Amino acid sequence: MASKLVRHRHLRALSSSSISINNHIRSPHFSNPNRAPLSFSYRLFSNASSSSSSSGGFQRPSSLKDLELAKFAAIAETWWDSEGPFKPLHVMNPTRLAFIRSTLCRHFSKDPNSAKPFEGLKIVDVGCGGGILSEPLARMGATVTGVDAVEKNIKIARIHADLDPVTSTIEYCCTTAEKLVEEDRKFDAVIALEVIEHVANPAEFCKSLAALTVPDGATVISTINRSMRSYATAIVAAEYLLHWLPKGTHEWSSFLTPEELVLILQRANITVREMAGFVYNPLTGRWSLSDDISVNFIAFGTKNCQ
What we know:
Blueprint: E1 10-12, E2 18-20, H1 38-45, H2 66-74, H3 87-107, E3 122-126, H4 134-139, E4 143-148, H5 151-161, E5 171-174, H6 177-182, E6 187-193, H7 202-212, E7 213-224, H8 228-241, H9 258-267, E8 270-281, E9 286-290, E10 296-303
């Protein structure tokens, strides 16, 4: 599976200068045909905080949107229904885990063929939802903390994890990355999959992820590219034609291009080392890793030692 990973040598940011990545990363430059408007750049990099009001069991930090939280609270009970609203994540999960397993094992010098390759690692799953990623991470030996701002999600995750002695060790908290930073929590690896497109301030969110990561620790983020192809597939097709997701799950303007994500992470003191795309095969019904990052993509980075 490691051979399927895509290594990128250069990741161009929104500015005219390019961002250099380690020499072992290979791939052509990313193009950016859909540059963000100026107002989008302000949303990415402003330090303005949202209001601190809370409602409905939500803990409301500056980087989250109440509307986004409400969307997921409404379907929280369906997290472990593999044919329900979260079916796309269940189907994609093995491929996401393959990337995580390969990159973390390489970075932390772990044996990827071991039954518990993450033994000895402390990992936080930010925006864990019902725990569909936290549980396999625990089974691979990691000491896992799962956090989510939706209380219903945490309750569902806790109930399901307690069905298995191995996953019952997961620490689930109804909180946010920002709150963990205030508590001075630190982790070897910080993972946030399909979360950043739902936050109000991606730059501040990534700063929190960096603050949770130990020096030379790992950060893994997956999201959706802001491209015309992603609008056609992730929104029009997935939400309105195929009904894989509830209508209104995503806002195209909230997606980030790979260049933007790299720049945001760089400003948060995280260097992207590896990136890959996810491609769906409708004939097999499976996802695979690819060099096609035009829609779904995942990035692995490390926190710079200061």
